[in-house]
Amino acid sequence: MKIKTLIIVIAVGFITSCNSQQDDATTPETIETATPEILLEENTLSQSFSYLKSGRYKADIISRLYSEALEKDSALRVLNEKIEMMSSIKEDSLQAFDNYKSVNEDYWRSAKSYIDQIQDETLKTSTAKAFDDLEKVFYAKITNHEQVNLTIQQKSIALQDRLLVMKLLVTQPMILNFQNNEFPDIKTMESLIEAYDALIQEAEKITQ
Question: pTM here?
């Protein structure tokens, strides 16, 4: 068994062997009721000029909240790492087939270019027919591989969809905590209205 193949098998085995041990990991730990730290930090930074240069908003808010959740939830972090690992495992696992198919497709394209240069029409037609039949045999040979490859691509998309939903469901309670804990006091806004009214009245007296 090639070393690279062995590494892939070990990696896949690591992910699948952890399933029984990580049943609880698929359900993130209960999110605490406190306001997410990242939002508190950014609220403080937003009040200073230095925040304008900090670039803290390069990542979207869900990504920032999810990163905080990963730091606080070990089970969620393990699951996330396993999902990320699948991307490299997939690439390594499909590399041999992708290279094999690419080399053959490059050959068929080159062969057709050579055939187009044949001047004798009868010879060109018979040669083209022969190589067309060979190409069909090749694609028939890799039919099963193509079907498996398609299934892998579909599974990859399904996993990414689940990851997106997981990020939404993990961060939704966090933003609710922010909404509940940091609900602004309306009295401050009402006081501002009173201040405007007072200044308007003073200005009216002078302009009358």
Answer: 0.72
Spatial distance between the Cα atoms of 179 and 181, rounded to a whole number of angstroms: 6
55 contact partners, CB below 8 Å, separation of at least 6: none
Give 189's contacts (C-beta < 8 A, 6+ positions apart): none
Phi, psi of 161 (to 5 degrees): -60, -45
Domain ranges for the chain: 1-23+57-173
Residues 81-100: tens digit of each pLDDT: 999 999 899 999 999 999 99
**What is the rounded CA–CA span in Å between residue 44 and residue 125?**
76
Identify the DSSP state of 19: T
Burial of 66 (C-beta count, 10 Å sphere; 0-12/13-18/19+):
buried
Residue 140 to residue 147: CA distance in whole angstroms: 11
Residue for token digits 């190409």?
Answer: 135
Phi-psi region of 27 (alpha: psi -120 to 50; beta: other; left: phi over 0): beta
Using CA atoms, how far apart are residues 42 and 78, in angstroms rounded to an integer? 27
Tracing tokens 């497709």 back to the chain, one arrives at 105
Structure tokens at 180: 């509940």
Torsional sign, CA 128, 130, 136, 139: negative
